[in-house]
Amino acid sequence: MVPLHGAVDRDLLFGLLRIPSVTKDVEQNNRAVVFLKGWLEAHDVFTAVATNEVGRTTLYASTTPGKCHDIVFVTHLDVVPPSCEGQFDPVVRDGFVYARGACDTKGNVAVIAQTLANMAGKGSIGAVFATDEEGRSPGLNTPTVLLNAGYVPQRFLIVGDTNGEFTDSLTVAEKGHVAITLRAHGRGGHSSMPWAADNPVPKLFAAYAKIQAALPKPADPNDHWRNDLTPTRLLGSPQANIIPDTAEMQFSYRFIEPDGAEKMKTFLEETTGLEVVLPPTWRKPVITDPSNPYVRSLHAAMRRAWSDREIPLTRMSCATDATRYVHLALPTVIFGATGACAHAKDERVSLSSLDGYEAMFTSFLTEQAK
Description:
- There is one protein chain.
- With about 375 residues, the chain is of the alpha+beta class.
- The chain has 2 domains: about 10-175 and about 285-370, Aminopeptidase; about 185-275, Alpha-Beta Plaits (2-Layer Sandwich), CATH 3.30.70.
- The protein is built from 8 helices and 19 strands.
- It has a 6-stranded mixed β-sheet with strand order 1-2-6-3-7-17, sandwiched between helices. A 4-stranded antiparallel β-sheet has the order 4-5-19-18. A 4-stranded antiparallel β-sheet has the order 11-13-9-14.
- Helix 1 (about 10-20) runs antiparallel to helix 3 (about 100-120), helix 3 (about 100-120) packs parallel to helix 8 (about 350-370) and helix 7 (about 295-305) packs across helix 8 (about 350-370).
- The longest helix is centred in the C-terminal third of the chain and has 18 residues, at about 350-370.
- It starts with 9 loop residues before the first helix and ends with a helix.
């Protein structure tokens, strides 16, 4: 490996990337927590660990003692499963590090950890390092475990994650997300005698045609800040020669209104006449006023740091752990170091971008601590 020198500790970054902390693997996520906790404590950062009912840990770190800090970062240590062999062996090429989790989101974890180390003993700054952002897992989600333990952000939330299709931007809004199930009932039987059954599968096809006809068309197809209902799964019989009693079509619904999930459930019921199932909880949209003083100050710091380019304020379709804090009504922004291909085999992040974000955040927080 070519020796690397920069503001973000490369041993920290590569050590995190080598840990295969796929969401479902509690042991490896706990290992990532231990690794990061040790690095932070060696750099005079205060740490605390909370554990949920199935033994999954999450890490809180801060520049000063306590549970409640004014400015709090939120990010995550877990990753999606690898797309190919060797993704947990980081490779540097053309200024990028290629690895699973490089841009989603261990590069941002390294930025935040290094910033905390730079600010140790100064300001009122904390960070949540969650371990279950990428997928559902048994037990209470890890940000909520910390919230219930009294680790509550006070004034401003900065989420480090991949911010979707945007790079070199500051995201001030993200859509809510819920998985919705459309369920059709019938009477099963042998596929050789369809006349003796009441097949629920065609009912789903007919229902989807009704949905497509009834959904409002976007006024501007290029404006992606809108509600999007996307079919993602069809579930029927376990094999081809069985007509099922019940069939399901599952949707990913991204929405921009706080009550969007309930509205879509009502729409689907009235449009199709079929059973509609919502999970007990879902991710609500996060929307922040761009004129908030914290947002303006951070945006100005980014424009100073990257004076050669435009730094837009953006809204994104992805959902992050920002949704775990929406009930606090805090100004919330999402950033992501320059990278590409999150969740893909060539996932990567720019090393110079990591260093740039670390320097920018240190400057911003130093000014806020005065």
